[in-house]
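Why this split exists: single-chain examples teach little about how molecules sit against one another. For that reason, every record in the complexes split bundles all components of an assembly together and asks for one structure covering all of them. Below is a record exactly as it appears in the raw files.
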Amino acid sequence: MKNEFQVIADLIEKDKKVLDVGCADGTLMKFLKDNKNINIRGLEISKEKVQECIAKGLTVIEGNAEKDLKQFPDKSFDYVVLSQTLQAFLNPELVLDELLRVGKKAIVTIPNFGYWKVRFHLLFKGTMPITKTLPDEWYNTPNLHMCTIKDFFHFVKSKDIKIFKSLALNNLNSSIINQSNLGVKNLFADLGIFLIEK
Amino acid sequence: MNTEKNIKTLIIKKPLKLDCGKTIKDFPIAYETYGSLNSKKDNAILIFHALTGDQFVTGINPVTNKEGWWSYAVGPDKAIDTNKYFVICSNVIGGCMGSYGPSHKDPDQKIFGTNFPVITINDMVNAQYNLLDHFGIDKLFSITGGSMGGMQVLQFISNFPDKSKTVIPIATTSSHSAQNIAFNELGRQAITADSNWKDGNYTSNDTNPGKGLAVARMAAHITYLSKKGLQEKFGRKLQEREDLKFGFDADFQIESYLRYQGSVFVDRFDANSYLYITRAMDYFDLAKQFNGNLSEAFVNTNAKFFIISFTSDWLYPTQENKDIVIALNSIGADVGFVEIESDKGHDSFLLDVPDFLSALKNFLDKSYEEN
């Protein structure tokens, strides 16, 4: 399991009710169910991935977060998880609002476009950056709204969303992000993980 | 039609008050079982059949000598694995494979015909509930069924919220749509317009409204398929001829196919049963039973739901299945949902659609492991 999922799992207490939005093949769901006794549900747009989740015995709904989150009542989950998908929605702001309506708290991770490798790639190669977390070419990437850790940090602040914890992840190392080290973390982390609440 | 030796029958002594106000008692329910009930009695699956189905789910149907209607899904090592699970299926009341229906005799020994009480999906499941007592099953492992079978699944868990661990409605709806009522009405009109129908008293008049029933079946059969499926299978191919004949014989293969479907159906199905069962489907509106709030139908159950629809099903389209998912999510129920890619139309649930069968198998087997 990738390190990102371990960090997410560490943010969630045992026995909680969790919705994994864009749960893919259910790796994180299965981990949470087996290791933390989490009452876990998934929402996934790909039929193939839904089938993989069913084969793992996971409860998954085939659907699109931009349309299908609205069917869940307010604060019906302790946590809603969105891993590296926010940038792929047509309207990320709307999805973020929905995550925070449905979940008492939300855990959102974003691939950091401010990561030094991304900046170097664009600066020296002059082509769209391709990294481990951004593996696609410009013409086939699902990402529509790339942002940096700094962008997201300012964005949630401007929306009066409370940040409980923000973590910078670089390979295996995670570290706390705060107002004073934001510039440095924005340069050296390839992933940002935010535990937020509204 | 209902005296065959191969039909197992349970006589329900307990009076059953029907939605129409009448009460029936001492009535037969014909059923079949597959696999064996384990000692803990926790491996039973109750399957509900669709409009023209019956209790003979798999293997050779002893009455028609044809494969059971859900042979692709049910049997040893299949999606509903009879090596593992004890499968029960019964003929709905109003039907014509041994359960109490319009071809039965009333207390005065006169064949009911249209004097049989109008029954509903609710009546059907209340009658079938008696099977649990008969087998001494406190809680089923699962209930499942497609189309009208799915309606019974929804009604059953609403009526008996703690009687099944898992619930699998397939290609169904919580409320019969205007379009579906319209198609059913077309079928009923075809039957009653046949002069041999004789106001439903064809048996005593020694006639049979076979033409009307065949037309009803032909029309319905089109709704079970998809445009793409029909086009790929038949296109404009001609039936055993080089060119058009400039007449009204079956020039096209699709015409011949439909005529065949109509004619074989007449051999195995009762026209009055067709009227009664389609009426039960039309009357089905689960939300209405709860003042328009479908979620209320499921508030008392902790069962795990898994809902399945098919991309090319235009009779019970994905959205109608999703409405059930939405109702369940809004009360925080445990519900999974998948739409299976298939161009075989509504009939997909009866056919060899590997993605469907594997989803069904995985859901059942994984849920059973967690038992």
